Amino acid sequence: MAEPSYTPPAQEDAATPEEPQRRAFGWCAWHEGHAEGVRLIDVIEQGSGSGITHFACGPCRTIYGLVPFADR
């Protein structure tokens, strides 16, 4: 019996010229609506229980001068 062979795909996350880079889709806390390309802006930690996170879309980041958490 032949064993099945598996060839892992080459760099699944890498964008190719034919395929644009994947962007996050979520809730923008600034314009209070769904948007593509949201980035984490702020994390509010609490002593007990879950904290709060604020995400913003590209246009709101530009308008309000927001810096993504990962870029600080």
Strand order, largest beta sheet:
1-2
Shape: extended
Q: Tell me the number of strands.
A: 4
* Category by helix and strand content: mainly beta
Helix proportion: under 10%
Give a verbal description of the structure.
This protein has 72 residues and is mostly beta strands. It has a domain at 41-72. Helix content is 10%, strand content 26%. It contains one helix and four strands. It has one helix at residues 58-64; strands spanning 25-28, 33-36, 39-44, 52-56. Strands 1-2 form a two-stranded antiparallel ribbon. Strand 1 (25-28) and strand 2 form a beta hairpin. The longest helix is centred in the last third of the chain and has 7 residues, at 58-64. The mean pLDDT is 83.
In summary, what is this structure?
By secondary structure, the chain is mostly beta strands. The protein contains one helix and four strands.
What secondary-structure arrangement, pairings included, does this model have?
Elements lengths: L24 E4 L4 E4 L2 E6 L7 E5 L1 H7 L8
